Amino acid sequence: MNQDYIKPDNWSIIEEGFDVERVKSSESLFSIGNGAMGQRANFEETYSGETFQGSYIAGIYYPDKTKVGWWKNGYPKYFAKVLNAPNWIGIDIEVNEENLDLHNCKEVRNFRRELNMKEGWYNRSFEAILKNGTEIAVNIRRFLSLDLDEAGVIKYDITPLNKDAKIVYKPYVDAGVTNEDANWEEKFWEPLEVKKGTNEAFVTAQTFKTHFKVTTFMHNTIFANGENANISPSTIDSTVDKVQYTYGTIIAKGQTSTIQKIGGYTVSLNHENTLAGAEKVIKSAVALGYDALLQNQIDAWAKIWEMSDITIEGDVKAQQGIRFNIFQLNQTYSGKDSRLNIGPKGFTGEKYGGSTYWDTEAYCIPFYMATKDQQVARNLLTYRYNQLDKAIENAKDNLGFKNGAALYPMVTMNGEECHNEWEITHEEIHRNGAIAFAIYNYNRYTGDYSYIPEKGLEVLIGIARFWHQRASFSKDKNQYVILGVTGPNEYENNINNNFYTNYIAKWCIDFAAEQIEKVASEYPADHKRVMAKVSLSANEIQEWKKVADDMYFPISQELGIYLQQDGFLDKDLVPVKDLDKSQRPINQKWSWDRVLRSPYIKQADVLQGFYFFEDHFSKEELKRNFEFYESFTVHESSLSPCVHSIQAAALDKMDMAYTFYLRTSRLDLDDYNKEVEEGCHITSMAGTWMSIVEGFGGMRVKNDQLHFSPKIPKEWNGYSFKINFRNQILKVAVNHNETTFTVDGDQDLTIIVNGNPVIASKFVQIK
């Protein structure tokens, strides 16, 4: 834990007191989004202190030219940047002819932020004494509409406390923005058109290179004590990429002046004419009005929470943590659009390029399968199917593979590889396995097999072809090996025979071969279509199988464990507990050379294989491997604590499971890795959900049935969650005395609890 200023609360994230050192961290933590767009919690008014300005639009990116010290064949041409979108929230404010800037006020008191997760709004309030002696109380509420998802709303109230005040509002829209994260300091936006109306303004710009067109808009209304003041702007200033209006008001001491600002984006992904689309959005939002928009927001979030909420009794920090994770996941991805995916930072920052990683398939799909309609998860699978041709191009053009072998990119926005570190881009090839596993996992959970003959089989074949060609035969070992890789533990590069990579490669080939047979038997028309399209023969499948059947796995017979890679035991095996705390996190304290030679593990690696393929190993094998590798794991990846929490719970190490749960759920709130100001770790938040449902709840799917082995941390009085399993809603409630299963509906559901079959109906109680 590196910070502890967020106030414990069941439903809200709360900060009290103004501290300039916390501004950027809070901008991340209080971020808001609605699936279509999002923004950091930047101040609407001028702030001259340190800040990280960021607004983002789903699906809009820029191909920033790759910057490397030494170019090598195969490097991607660009690193995709999620763009800092034009600013629509800005409102410069003058009070008695002094600019409001919290960095320059005489005093700021009673400063408070609240992110109300239950209702989906962000509130900031404070009292300030300006240098001119005027004292004001300010309250600002902002939200991004879930229903009208191209629009956001700001209500900005100012009350003079010690004298009458002349208040001047200067709202603006501005496309002259830059990215915090840019390789060459290029401009990303080209202004096209500015349009001004009575109280509304529009700036249309397009991205260089990718030519996404965006109209950024605003509509302003001034109120005095809650009544529309019917004020038009006194001046209108504009440039090629910015429009700013000025509204002057006089307000008596103790009275309240308000500006309500509606703003947002319309994009060419969804509109042929983005300006006309923006005018339509404003018309709809103004017709509803602030109160109705807010109530619709509250109602929409109530519907989301009805299905996705997890309750925890007796541990407020744990409760706050899981709801923060669930809230951010729902803000980031709604599942409406199969062109979109889940960036590691969501709408909270620019690090990692805001693109698609293997995190989606390995961690996020289980959350969306269980808390949404299954179509949402299917959309995520369809996203990869639609990019299969690009994955084949990536393997062919960058690595020299042939015959339709597919290597999905480590990082992508449109299917092209856009990650610029060789040891990740071309060595961390295990991501191919996560994509195949997600297809298997989707079918296992939903029972919907149709995706495989329709789309998934082509993906599986491309991936199997890749593994077949990537493996090589070792005469020394008389087995197939996979050389020069990076496993999930990115603190080892260019190593040989990473256990997880070899294991998932074998599994992918076996699974693809099984599905080819099944589709041939049960979906002959699809089988004929796919085989003709990919030109796959029985002889080729037999060649695949030779690789899978004779895959090499490094093992230590003495320790009874699988080796993370061939040379792991050659390292200086000093456990983490003996590492000086002043050296943590090692990725910020040590040279990369020292990190690579150390035994320290960034995240689950061998244990990632045990997580995916739990049924392939005995409990004793899990115990030996867990106890060995956890002792060397520094958990400096956000994806690490959740897997360890699930496996600790499976091994009845409940104190450890709880500690890991708290770390994954409060990773950003408590800033464990000293980096939250860069944005929140969105994709790992799905792992937090898994820590409860799969860890403490023990939920598994085996032989088309739900299995549970419920456990509860001693720190909790009880917990509950809901899942949508094959269109049946099951609520699970656990306390120290009993577990209750409730089915929503009249149809019974047979489940397995602690190895025993139970028919769950409207109310089933298991002692």
TrEMBL record:
Q: Which UniProt keywords apply?
A: Hydrolase
| InterPro entries, A to Z | 6-hairpin_glycosidase_sf, 6hp_glycosidase-like_sf, Gal_mutarotase_sf_dom, GH65_N, Glyco_hydro_65_C, Glyco_hydro_65_M, Glyco_hydro_65_N, Malt_Pase/Glycosyl_Hdrlase
Keyword tRNA processing carried by entry: no
Record keywords: Nucleus included?
A: no
**Record domain Glycoside hydrolase family 65 central catalytic: where:** 323-690
Task: Name the protein family.
Answer: Belongs to the glycosyl hydrolase 65 family.
Protein's name according to its UniProt entry:
Glycoside hydrolase family 65 protein
Q: Which organism is it from?
A: Flavobacterium ginsengisoli
